[in-house]
Amino acid sequence: MSAIRGTFKDGQIILAAAPPTDWPDGAEVRLELVDPLGTDSDEGDDPESIAMRLAEHDALEPFLSEEDDARWRKARQEYKEWELANREKRDKMIEGFFP
Predict the structure, then answer these.
(1) Could you give the CA distance from residue 93 to residue 98 in angstroms, rounded to a whole number?
(2) What residues contact 4, with CB distance under 8 A and at least 6 apart?
(3) Domain limits of the chain?
């Protein structure tokens, strides 16, 4: 038998993929909490495991709205430009800490 993954949310388990069609109706299943560090020994690098992890990733909802993401990317770019423009000044200041 193959395993499928899901996410526990609001008291329900949301499956990342549909169960195999050969599972008989009324079959007993086992649920267990996945290691949060992702070190489960059943996570292989075979095509099925990779496809399962990709499906889980695709099922995630975005953390930021499109507008918030655009603002974050703009602020990040502005900070990068500021860092590059002030690099020499910052480097000299840091060098002053070391006699």
Answers:
(1) 10
(2) 15, 16, 17, 18, 19, 20, 52
(3) 6-59, 66-95
Task: Report the C-alpha gap between 12 and 9 in whole angstroms.
Answer: 5
- Tell me which amino acid residue 63 is: F
Tell me the C-alpha distance between 12 and 28, whole Å.
17
Alpha-carbon span 76 to 72, nearest angstrom: 6
| Predicted local distance difference test score (pLDDT) of residue 91 | 92
CB 48 within 8 A of CB 2: yes
| pTM: predicted TM-score of the whole model, two decimal places | 0.38
For residues 9-16, give the mean pLDDT: 87
Question: What pLDDT score was predicted for residue 62?
Answer: 86
Only one residue has tokens 């002030």, namely 86
Cα 27–chain centre separation: 31
